[in-house]
Design goal:
- The complex is a heterodimer.
- Chain A has one domain: Alpha-Beta Plaits (2-Layer Sandwich).
- Chain A has 2 helices and 4 strands; from the N terminus they run αβββαβ.
- Chain A has helices at residues 3-22, 53-70, and strands at 26-28, 34-36, 39-46, 76-80.
- In chain A, strands 1, 2, 3 and 4 form a 4-stranded mixed beta sheet that branches.
- Chain B is mainly alpha-helical.
- Classes of the chains: A alpha+beta, B mainly alpha.
- Chain A binds chain B through residues 36-37, 39, 41, 49, 51-54, 56-58, 60-61, 64-65, 68, 75, 77-83, and chain B through 55, 62, 64-65, 68, 88, 91-92, 95-96, 98-100, 102-109, 111-112, 115.
Amino acid sequence: MTSVEVEDLVQRWLTERSRRLTGYGLQVKRGATRQEDEWWYVVVVPDKDGVRATQYAELLAEVEEELEAQAPQEKILLVPALVGV
Amino acid sequence: MDETVENWWKMAQDARDAAGVCLRSRHYRSAVSRAYYAAFSALTAELLRRGAAPRTGFGTWSHAALPRFAQEQLRRPLGVDVARDVRQMASRCYKLRQIADYVPAIDVAAQEARLCLRYTAAIMRTFGTETDGENR
């Protein structure tokens, strides 16, 4: 997969899950994805301020696990980041 | 116990205890960071004890790879459910640690520190160590 394909895959999962579960959206930061030691590091940003850290962490971990179930050959790590970075 | 394994266990115990100290003194970001590192060290010790080979030149696994690798390695000896639980707790600790150390705009409070310490204590109990740093 290319970094753009990885970003598209992650964004599809985030769009389906995040707002339904949390009331806010999570967006892939386009162009920030990098690969290191077979792992894709994908930066994911909430679309509003004031998110609860536990909820944000839980959602990112859940989406990682679901992505792994769907595409076990891909190694994708979702990286939390600042709003507006 | 192998000396390298023992040293990782000691690091895990030290980091867990330090996390408890940070929690009690309301240094919540530091508590999360130390609690995660305790979990990371405990997982590293357990995988080394079971003969898994870390990255050449590092002596351990990457933070990104460790939870998933641990699940794969622990599935057979500990069972599918326990291996999954360990992986999920380690993943969530890592996410909280990333937020605590790198995302200052998101509040990290006692709730996050306690959760991370509970995950760490559960991981360490799974591997045969004793108590919860929050109460030490």
